[in-house]
Amino acid sequence: MENSTKLRGWLDNFDLNHPLVIAGPCSAETEEQVLKIAHQLKNTDTSVLRAGIWKPRTRPGNFEGVGSLGLKWLQKAKEETGLMTTTEVANPIHVDLALKHDVDILWIGARTTVSPFMIQEIAEALKGTDKTVLVKNPVNPDLALWLGAVERFYKQGIENLGVIHRGFSTYDSSEYRNIPEWQIPIDLQNEFPDLPLILDPSHIAGRRDLIFELCQTALDLNYDGLMVETHYDPDNAWSDAKQQITPETLDKYTIDLKVKNKVSSNEDFNYQLKKLRTKIDKIDENLVDLLVKRMQVADDIGKVKKEHNVSILQPERWKQILERMISLSEGSGLQKDFILNVYKAIHQESIAHQKNIK
Ligand SMILES: C=C(O[C@@H]1C=C(C(=O)O)C=C[C@H]1O)C(=O)O
């Protein structure tokens, strides 16, 4: 699959002057609930109504969705409000039912994206249709697996495509339900700048107080849209109660969010930017120069170690270096994790250099 402006055709057709907003409840619960939320969203920035019909839950015994009955409610909501509709499909039976009920956009959940078998079956079921398909990232941070799923749809002739960033599972404790790992969607944009990228802040956050900041970060990173779980009574929602916000809150957020431009034609801005970027270029040259010099010393250390049959890894020295660099950077404004990551990468390269000593 090659990058192409065709990929974003479906999004351009909305002709919006703001990011695409997809909103609606985590799960369709009752006909009244779906219709009430749809009407509350009608006069906001929302263009597409979302609702989960089949809910893949981590453990059995929780509410698993109302099933195909809910598709009729989505259809009714579309008729009454003019909003487009979207739901998650996880197998060809879901696809068939969604097509029969005229769902406009289908999304693929994170747990489905991990399985090329399932994706292939769903993609084949969609062959020959003009539906838009949005692929959520897989639960594990694997860009190739994410893009592989998109490619399977593309190969079946589906050209209206997009991706949804919903964060990645982690066993470590984190303030997020699913850690964002922003570098992965940044890498994705590098490879496919015209593949629409949508943030799902609800599943990253897992709690409503983080949603606004996540949306703002996405807009700072050129995302094309937001998919936000909304419910008129979030605390009593049948699923994901902690992460849903009301349609009124969403409306306020979309007003407060700052939409950024990719570039500016302001001459003064462009002059300042150019000057500052020249400074960055110079600093980067110095950084590479220093890294080369550091590796040359590591090579010398490697040679003497080899002559005296001493192991490459020296845990005590390595620990000292890390502690020293963390203490040196204290109060500098650099995050401790950043220093750790930079030095871990330098240490790895230093070991690789020493291993190469002949
Ligand atoms: C360079 C050395 O070898 C390894 C690499 C280190 C480094 O690059 O700073 C530190 C400790 C060792 O694990 C050394 O022993 O000093």
TrEMBL record:
Enzyme class name: isomerase
InterPro entries assigned: Aldolase_TIM, Chorismate_II_sf, Class-I_DAHP_synthase, CM_dom_sf, CM_II_prokaryot, DAHP1/KDSA
Domain of life: Bacteria
Residue ranges of domain Chorismate mutase in the record: 267-358
Alphabetical list of Pfam families matching this protein: CM_2, DAHP_synth_1
SUPFAM superfamilies from the UniProt entry: Aldolase, Chorismate mutase II
PANTHER family in the record: PHOSPHO-2-DEHYDRO-3-DEOXYHEPTONATE ALDOLASE (PTHR43018), PROTEIN AROA(G) (PTHR43018:SF1)
Identification of the protein by name: chorismate mutase
